[in-house]
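To: structure desk
From: M.T.
Subject: fold request, one chain
Message: Could you run this one when you get a chance? Sequence is below, nothing fancy, just the single chain.
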Amino acid sequence: MIRPLGQIYGTFLLAEIEGEFALIDQHTAHERILYERFLERWRALQHPPIEGKGDAGPFSAVQPLLVPQQIDLPVTKAGLLRDYLKDLALFGWGIEHFGETTFLVREVPALISKIGLESFLHDLTDDLAQTEVSSKPEQPILNVIASMACHGAIRANQPLTPPEIEALLKDYFEMKTPPTCPHGRPIVLRYPLLELEKLFRRK
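Reply: Done. Structure tokens follow.
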């Protein structure tokens, strides 16, 4: 049972989860939701449906920008981004190399359409630079997914309506994901009734 109780500091959600009091970080919870959805999209592309049955699902939906956004990057970062344009396209990114260090962003994944594009591309290329030497061939793609999830997630100090809180909690707890965001930060603190009673010296 999930019973939303509210939001505090515009950052943390309060709820009763299966009889326990829970404090949830709204950013890390949403980040984990987005990460799992993009990861599902990527895994589906590695194992496409037999004989064309089925489709890529909602995770491939894109949001065209009314006005393409021009972004300039330092030379090294621009080179990295060029190398991963095809990978980004798998998730709904429409990014065109427009010059030596200039790019035009024409489409973004619909799941994260309100993302800050310039900060995302700077942070993404920083992450890619660190994983280029990884022994795991899929690690750069996992970093792309983690960066998209982090930048696309609800932020701290962002007020949510009761229906938004309920939807976020439902999505997160139904996924049964690991208890941390992709970067290792905790998502939920849970307090059984007995622990609360001890804190208030009732037991």
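Reply (cont.): The chain has seven helices and seven strands. Let me know if you need anything else for the meeting.
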